[in-house]
């Protein structure tokens, strides 16, 4: 039996999202149906809208959902009806990456997240009896209800019972990516200097995580002075405007070089400039989405001779359940105050929320979909 829902349909480049009636498929054993309370808006949603990623259209996007479980399949153990949950990306659970708890690098990432259907090709959503592309990141949370999976659903721990779901929603993507890049991928050491390029959701999460790790100094670089001010509030010890010779200022501040640089911009010249700031054994983490045609140039002798690393990072090497629970714990303790990034919009203002993300006026727009 199908379940009726309302979902924001994306029909491609430059067309506004439109909220329409759809039906969700009956649950498979490893699936949950979640009533959505809120969903964050991420740049990846826009990249798919603009056909920069190979997700079929029309499609229901949204991959930072949080809500209440309505029904679970027979094999679900992660949550039960009535539980508060947050969703992240999906993975197969049985490939060489999933075997080592590195599901962001799942060998079967595409069919589980971007194919528009379940990994076996069956549809999770219909409109007027026709298949609607959905199951985006194993959720499609720009909707009143979504089908999620055992692998991408996390029960909100009781210790976070007082934190509203509309705040928790975005934790499963950009926040996890920035924080994970620092804490899990690069494993930033206490007392070591770090520079973070780009002060969006990912960069701001990295700043907060660098403070948790005890990095020093923590240098934020961006072109937007308001964002740099916010980065300082969140833990940056220094903030430099990229238009104002930030590289020279970093060299002056840390002449021996940086232990870590993290690029969230995906801009070649920024990455190459950041790389050149590394001290021996330094790590240059790359998390920014770039033009697929781009190639980077690094000096081989500097890389080998200094034991320097260039590290590609996806999703902050998150293992989903344990890491999101750890981040919520930091939030409860006031060490991960990501609420300062959020601006709220009603579900039917989804196009305004996307606009606010694109014009930079809101770091992390979150849609309010239903009352908790
Ligand atoms: C994702 C990419 C795959 C792992 C989790 C985060 N980014 C989404 O915007
Ligand atoms: Zn995202």
Can you offer a commentary on this structure?
The chain has helices at residues 43-49, 96-99, 109-113, 165-168, 174-185, 201-213, 225-234, 246-253, 268-275, 300-305, 321-332, 350-358, and strands at 3-10, 18-24, 31-40, 59-60, 65-72, 84-87, 125-127, 130-132, 145-149, 153-155, 194-197, 218-222, 238-241, 258-263, 278-286, 309-312, 342-346, 364-368. It is an alpha/beta fold. It has two domains: 3-172 and 337-368, Alpha-Beta Complex (Quinone Oxidoreductase, Chain A, domain 1), CATH 3.90.180; 175-315, Rossmann fold (3-Layer(aba) Sandwich). Strands 3, 5, 6, 9, 10, 17 and 18 form a seven-stranded mixed beta sheet that branches. Strands 13-12-11-14-15-16 form a six-stranded parallel beta sheet, with helices on both faces. β15, α10 and β16 (309-312) form a beta-alpha-beta unit. α5 runs parallel beside α6 (201-213). The longest helix is centred in the middle third of the chain and has 13 residues, at 201-213. It is globular and about 65 Å long. Residues 12-367 form the Enoyl reductase (ER) domain. It comes from Alteraurantiacibacter aquimixticola. Pfam families: ADH_N, ADH_zinc_N. Keywords: Metal-binding, Oxidoreductase, Zinc. This is NAD(P)-dependent alcohol dehydrogenase.
